[in-house]
Write a structure and sequence with these properties.
The structure holds two protein chains of two kinds.
Chain A (H helix, E strand, L loop, with lengths): L5 E6 L2 H13 L6 E3 L7 H5 L6 H27 L12 H27 L20 E6 L6 H11 L3 E5 L8
Helix pairs in contact in A: 1-5, 3-4
Chain B lengths: L20 H22 L3 H31 L10 H26 L22 H6 L5 H32 L3 H28 L12 H26 L8 H32 L2 H10 L5 H18 L3 H5 L1 H27 L8 H22 L12 H5 L4
The chains are: A alpha+beta, B mainly alpha.
């Protein structure tokens, strides 16, 4: 038991899980993470999860797209090969707008999808790292870092008291698909 | 009553009492409106007064219709988040018959006094032997003639009014009887309404606004007007909710609901720009004289500053102000944006109507401001009166509880 890295409390009911989080927090036990097979309202606020920074990535990628599109069209239509289209000036800005808009959307969407996969270590062909396989199926799981919280017995009893059906002491952080 | 749950204490059956300041001020506003109309006619500005009457009656009818559209949309989508605030669009929908009647009277008055629609409704325009013969108008005369024009207007607005009556009646029955039967009926009739509304609103916009400049046409115009209607309707709904909350009502509506309304406003402001720009770009790109005349008029020094202000108010300001999550959740920010956009869409309609009616004799003074105040007062008065007749929440709505737990 002393080698345990993480303590996982398995719950069968989301209300019990929320109760478990309350119990641990009132006893000053820090929670590493919580895994649930479905979204639970209010859990981010309870755990103090920070808001995602993905919108910043979206903005930066979008801006890159706008600038890329503008410079590309400007180079093509104004500098490199000006064409007289319907007597309009070569730099006819309204014509640029749809392309700038579309390239902005393209860069932004690819950028945030890429960044999302990167941050979550999800690459094609990579086995996902999960702390317990049943968290994607039917169990609601609270993970506690055993090294940071020195009283495993107390944690056990708190989890059990809150309605945990199973408490696991794992020596390895992730169980992998093999 | 009803869906009460012991965990929270919202008084769903509370009533809005229509008295005191809102009542007095809306009555004063109506009076100002009447005085301005009188002033307009007495100072020999009949055409300008008619153009403003058309603008505001169309605006108010559109906002009321947007309330009905919102209602129908929530029923068809079986939306849960909005259940608690449905009484506000319902009150909007109940104003629709009166607003529609006013619009019809003003359109008919403008037609017969030749103050509006003189581009297609004048002596000899479709008579080949007349010196005033206009072949473009003659070709359109099958569609653009007085009886058919008025019939369309009456039929469309009459249909919308029937649906506004039906949908509010189902909700009233639901309050009395509970159960799911009213809700199911609402879904069915909402779906029918949306189909009719979708096909008729473009024609409604073509008739009342686009035909002011009958030589010109744009197929985008219907959707452009729909976008304006939907944004201004959403702003009016949101503003009403925020003001009601400020006066201590609607305790069950929280920042999550406002956030959703804010997202709607944000998204549809961009949609408005999209449609506006789609119309502009095609005309700009094709550069055909019969099409560019529309923007040529609006590019004259008389209208140019307003042209840019329109885009600034209706696109740039909601885009920049409502971009962040917090801005949509803070009722104060949202309130200012709603007021700004309501003013912005007044300007939008102004830019649609004035160059085709009063052209160079445009004005911005007592007539414009007074008539706008008058119609806002009228709408507020009718809407709050309708709102005060029923409990502020649809107490037996099947999703009322879900609406309460809405969280984003």
């Amino acid at each position: 038991m002393s080698n345990a890295k993480y303590i996982l409390g398995h719950f069968e009911d989301p209300d019990d899980l929320m109760h478990g989080i309350d119990q641990l927090q009132t006893n000053d036990i820090s929670i590493y993470d919580v895994f649930t097979p479905m979204p639970i309202h209010g859990i981010e606020a309870k755990l103090g999860v920070k808001r995602s920074r993905l919108p910043i990535v979206a903005f930066c990628c979008g801006l890159t797209g706008t600038i890329a599109a503008f410079s590309m069209i400007y180079y093509m239509l104004v500098i490199d090969w000006p064409i007289d289209i319907g007597g309009k000036p070569a730099f006819a800005f309204p014509d640029f707008v749809p392309i700038m808009f579309e390239v902005t959307v393209l860069f932004c969407s690819f950028g945030i999808v890429g960044m999302f996969f990167f941050r979550n270590h999800l690459f094609p062909g990579r086995a996902p790292r999960v702390m317990d396989l049943r968290a994607t199926n039917d169990r609601f799981i609270i993970a506690i870092d055993a090294k940071k919280n020195p009283h495993p017995d107390k944690i056990d009893s708190l989890l059990k008291g809150a309605g945990a059906v199973e408490v696991m002491h794992n020596d390895r952080k992730y169980v992998s698909y093999e | 009553m009803g869906t009460h749950n012991h965990n929270h204490s919202h008084n769903y059956s509370e009533y809005f009492k229509f008295s005191g300041k809102p009542k007095i001020w809306s009555l004063i506003a109506i009076l100002i409106g009447f005085l301005s109309v009188g002033y307009g006619f007495l100072t020999d500005h009949a055409e300008r007064t008619f153009a403003n009457l058309l603008l505001m009656s169309y605006y108010v009818t559109c906002v009321a219709a947007a309330g009905l559209f919102f209602l129908a949309l929530q029923y068809v989508a079986q939306a849960g988040w909005s259940a608690g605030l449905l009484r506000i669009p319902q009150a909007f929908a109940k104003v629709l018959p009166v607003a529609a009647l006013l619009l019809i009277i003003i359109c008919a008055g403008g037609l017969f006094t030749h103050n509006l629609y003189h581009h297609w409704n004048a002596e000899g325009l479709s008579d080949p032997n007349s010196p005033h013969f206009d072949s473009i108008i003659a070709n359109k005369a099958v569609f653009l003639n007085v009886p058919f024009f008025l019939t369309r207007l009456v039929v469309f607005l009459g249909l919308y009014s029937i649906f506004s009556f039906l949908l509010t009646k189902f909700s009233a029955n639901e309050d009395l009887e509970g159960g799911l039967s009213s809700y199911k009926k609402s879904i069915k009739w909402s779906a029918i309404f949306l189909i009719i509304f979708g096909f008729t609103t473009p024609i409604w916009a073509f008739d009342t606004i686009m035909s002011l400049e009958a030589h010109w046409f744009s197929t985008m115009f219907g959707w452009y007007n729909f976008a304006a209607m939907w944004v201004s309707g959403l702003c009016a709904i949101t503003l009403t909710i925020i003001l009601l909350k400020k006066s201590g009502h609607l305790s069950w509506i929280n920042e999550n609901h406002l956030h959703d309304l804010g997202k709607f406003i944000f998204a549809f402001s961009i949609f408005w720009t999209y449609v506006w720009f789609a119309q502009f770009l095609l005309i700009y790109y094709a550069n055909m004289p019969e099409e560019t005349v529309y923007f040529y008029k609006r590019w004259e020094p008389e209208y140019l500053p307003w042209f840019w202000l329109n885009i600034f108010m209706n696109f740039l300001s909601p885009l920049l102000i409502l971009m962040t999550r917090d801005a949509k959740r803070r009722s104060k920010t949202l309130m200012y944006v709603c007021i700004l956009l309501l003013a912005g869409h007044w300007l939008d309609y102004y830019m649609m109507i004035m160059p085709g009616t009063v052209e160079g004799h445009r004005g911005f003074g007592i007539i414009e401001i007074g008539i706008a105040i008058g119609f806002v007062g009228l709408f507020t008065f009718l809407m709050l009166y309708q709102l005060s007749k029923k409990a502020l929440a649809p107490i037996h709505h099947p999703f009322l509880e879900e609406s309460l737990h809405h969280q984003i």
